[in-house]
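pinning this so it doesn't scroll away 📌
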Amino acid sequence: MKYLTEYRDGAKAQRLAAEIRRIVTQPWAIMEVCGGQTHSIIRNGIDQILPEQVEMIHGPGCPVCVTPLAAIDKALAIASRPEVIFCSFGDMLRVPGSNDDLFKIKGAGGDVRVIYSPLDAVRIARENPEREVVFLAIGFETTAPANAMAVKLAKQQGITNFSALVSHVLVPPAIETIMNSPGNRVNAFLAAGHVCCVTGFAEYPALAAKYNVPIVVTGFEPLDLLEGIRRTVLQLEKGQAKVENAYPRVVSEQGNRAAQAVIEEVFEVTDRGWRGIGTIPGSGWRLNSDYREFDAEYKFTVSDISTCESPLCRAGEVLKGAIKPNQCQAFGKECTPRTPLGATMVSSEGACAAYYNYGRFVHLERPAIAEQVS
């Protein structure tokens, strides 16, 4: 249990927090890119033991949260078809589309199945040759290798009734968009360790230099995050803007070459819509022409679906770090985990869900919880 306990030591956490308090002399706003990091920060009370000069801004790095509404509506349209077995990870089933979600489609008789690996969808397709099996392939760079491998295996094995509805997004273009946003106040970034495990971090020095921002690669345990914040604050105080790897037990600069190879074989870069943010050029992957017959968007002709976001939901501003979740007037009222207006409330990595579930700044009907690192 080494990595479940070694990096959760409360005394070490307090010492790191004290070191951050010692070195900080002015206000700094640091964005953690990943939703998993957001949940760890809120769940473990890291935001409460940091000095008041250090503000954590919650970034867009939750794949469920940034999947555009149009992609969800395409998934719902496909899942509603009687000949389709629609396969998805469980965290997508309650993400709201324009009118329904996958749970409602399942309740109405649609064959919607929760799987734990994209290879499960390939197996289901092999076992049900008379049905069309569609896998909802979303995520950042982290999940792309497994999703690409599923498509590659389906082609190798001649499984023509399998396809993937792909909505992959990429971190570096999102960082650029945030830095170019009007009113942006992010001074530094904590990069997501699981993304960099796949891609490495060779792309990040150019971003750090272009925007004069430190970028520190971190993990997800309390001590990983506090060490990443300490290094970031130290750079900011010294006027530096470089890339550091605070997660060397998992991440290398060049990343996983085998994973990158299968991604490059199956996917190509494309413009991608981000929920609540809009289209970011070159920020996603789609199946390339060699694998186009496995693209569910083309197979089921759902490319023309367009949508409108709820006027009450301010998830886009949350994802860009412009507001905290509790600053949305619908938070904890019209929008709760049971009645979500946006994916940031329903996702297991969403910032709104983190604030609600861990009692941080929630509406008065729920007690506040100040859960510290222990």
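📌 and the second one:
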Amino acid sequence: MAVFEYTALNAKGKKISGMVDAESLSAGQQKLKARDIFPISLNRLDAPASGGVQDPARAFWKKGPGLDFLSSIKSSEVTMITRQMSTLLSAGFPLVKAIATLVPQTGSKTFQRILSRVKDALEEGSSFADALSAHPQAFSPVYVNMVRAGESSGTLEIVLERLADFSEKREDTKKQIQAALAYPVLMAVIGFLVLLFLLTYIVPGITKIFTDMNHSLPAPTQVLLSVSAFLKSFWWLVMLLPVLGFFCFHFIRKTDRAGPSLIKSLFPFPLPGT
């Protein structure tokens, strides 16, 4: 079973888009027409990634705390889908039908593809936990293990509800921390800019008075002057380095070798969420 992404017109002539699973392109077109949806374009998505046990360091590195805003999948969206899935299962919906119902409700195209692949894996006979474990960028090892426990005990809807509760509390805590750190971070940035201004423009003017008087300057003052001269010539480099460092770190953590090895060397103890 393949997954196709379509752009089509509904019975009212409104342009819509979504995903449909079918055996072939023609079968997908027929399936859409049976629902009074007339496809304009129908493109097959890539096959789902193979499952298997994920390396904890690799999963932690890929998930990467503190960089959620650079990801196309938001944790709040995963929380919302988890809550809705729990509600549907509690209402008696089969798991596959519940996931198929939730796919069009996700705002992220990437997350839509992931949910569609999870649904396909379930239809092919995989367990829900195994289907989720193939997508560590969206579902953490803790999430997968709790789902596995819920499947084993027959309480999947309860586990999903607790996962949603936990995720919502974590989001609230993260927002509170961000709000608490906003003012100190702002003050640190302003302080850095003021220090940069003093070293670049104010200090050279003051020290020029002493040099004009032919007074020998102490070693700390000479070091300060050297730093001031460097900043005056290369202030743009100082401003650019933190930004470059941030994006270099984000790029490196996407690699499959350097990132997990670095995490294992820096954190020999068990990683949170693994």
